[in-house]
Every structure is written in C-alpha cells, then in structure tokens.
Specification:
- With 269 residues, this protein is an all-beta fold.
- Helices cover 0% and strands 56% of the residues.
C-alpha cells in the first residue's frame, strides 16, 4: 500500500516518503517502519487546518488531523503613546487593538505613578477603555496588556494628562508683623498646565529685589507653593497682597492682608 498526505487545500503534499510540492519545510519522518509522520518546520498561520493521511487500501482509509497554529498576541494599533491631553469634565477613550490565535483578551491597568505606584486593574476587559467625566485625579499612566496564554504577552502604555484652570489657596488670609522685621506670605496653586503665578501689590507684580524675595516650591506634579519674603518691614508694607495664577484655561487669585503688630509699652511712675 501507499501512504499519502493531503493538506487543508486538498493538495497532495507527499507520496510515501517523497515530498510532492516545492516546500522545503515539509518532510515525512519515519522513526519506525510503521510510522509516516508529517513534519512541518517554521509553521505559519496559513499552515493551519485539517490534514489527511490516506492509505490506498480498498476502501481507502483516511485519518484527519487538525493543526491549530497558535500565535502570540500582537498590538496592531493603540492610542498615541505620548501625552493624551483632555480638559477636566470631558471623556477620553483609550484603545488597544490586538491580534493573535486564539484571539487575545485585553486587560487595562493604572500604574498609580503619583500615589502608591502599585499597578491596579481598571475598567472591563476589552480593546477600549472609556473614562467619563474625567477629573484631575485620573492623571496617570495607563497600560493595556494583551494575553492569549501564548507567550509572550504584549503591552502598551499611555499617559493621560488632565488640564484644568488654576485654584489658589492660602494657609491664612491675614498675617501680622512688627516694623523692622521680616515675614513670609505663602499661597498654594494647583493648575494644569501650571502657567504663570505671581504676587501683586497695588496691581503691580512683585519680583525678587532687596525688598522682596519670590520663591517657588514644587509640592507635586501640578501643585506649587509660591512664597513672598518681605524684608525690613515699614509702614508702606502693611497692605493687601494678591496671589494670582493663570494658564490657558483661566485666571484665579486670592488676597492676603499684612497688618502691623505693635509691641505694648508700659510706663512706670
């Protein structure tokens, strides 16, 4: 009898131990006399399907074998990997399109880069992650992971930046000091982007000089403390000061009053 191998497109690919097609990847291996093993090297997706091993007996005997070619995940398209900028209150969609055999599942994670730094699963599994009514607390790096149990899994990261107008807060709205001494006024500004932050007196911006020293301290990625040191206080310094912040989305300001403190004088007769 003779043994024939037929591929999924019903083409005879071997007769006995001879290859019948011009594909060098294919051979018939016979470790034992009764064995007629079809060997396919460098398997591709196109090789998948039902193969038939036939023996020309009467009647013909046929054995069908299904070859399933598994393919590791591949992310073929995804949201732009740089900054995805949205305004607070808007909605954003993050997308990860993945292929593979079997079809990969896509899982979403938040990396919590500004807080715990612990990877946290978010949303439902799927190629699309929607964040509705986004807030500044959603700023982070998000990661999609495609996995179909055929290693290696694939992942992509996307950074989401939420823009919002400035907010200005004061530790206190009034501060007192004696003549000839110095004091420090502070305001805390939160904004995205941070933009411009200044101290003003009588409508004029104050800058570092012999009288004033303006410093900025970073609190976190979208919050700063703006300090104003006033040296050698005199009567003209007792006034209202304004901390003002502006960016592309708006302007905000808050007022602080610097008033005089006078030492008590006791007369003894």
């Amino acid at each position: 009898f003779q043994v024939v191998w037929v591929n999924p497109s019903n083409t005879v690919i071997s007769l006995q131990d001879r290859r019948m097609i011009n594909d060098m990847r294919i051979s018939v291996e016979r470790p034992y006399l009764a064995d007629w093993n079809l060997h396919i090297r460098n398997v591709t997706v196109e090789d998948g399907g039902y193969y038939k091993c036939q023996i020309n007996t009467e009647p013909v005997k046929t054995k069908r074998i299904k070859l399933i070619v598994q393919v590791p995940p591949s992310i073929v398209s995804y949201s732009f990997p740089g900054d995805i900028k949205v305004t607070e209150g808007e909605s954003v969609e993050l997308r990860c399109n993945a292929t593979g055999v079997p079809q990969p599942s896509v899982t979403w994670f938040r990396l919590n880069q500004y807080t715990t730094r612990e990877r946290e699963q978010v949303g439902m599994s799927g190629e699309l992650l929607r964040i509705h009514n986004i807030s500044r607390y959603c700023v982070d790096v998000y990661e999609c992971v495609a996995n179909n149990s055929v290693p290696p899994a694939r992942s992509r990261q996307m950074r989401v930046t939420v823009q919002y107008p400035p907010e200005v807060k004061l530790p206190n709205t009034r501060i007192g000091q004696e003549l000839g001494k110095e004091t420090i006024l502070e305001c805390v500004v939160s904004a995205s982007p941070l933009g411009v932050t200044v101290w003003k007196k009588n409508g004029k911006e104050l800058s570092t000089s012999w009288k004033y020293e303006v410093d900025i301290y970073n609190e976190d990625h979208n919050t700063i403390t703006l300090s104003l040191r006033i040296a050698n206080i005199d009567h003209d310094d007792f006034s209202e000061y304004v901390c003002e912040a502006s960016n592309i989305l708006g302007v905000a300001s808050t007022k602080m009053l610097l008033y005089g403190k006078y030492s008590s004088v006791y007369l003894v007769s």
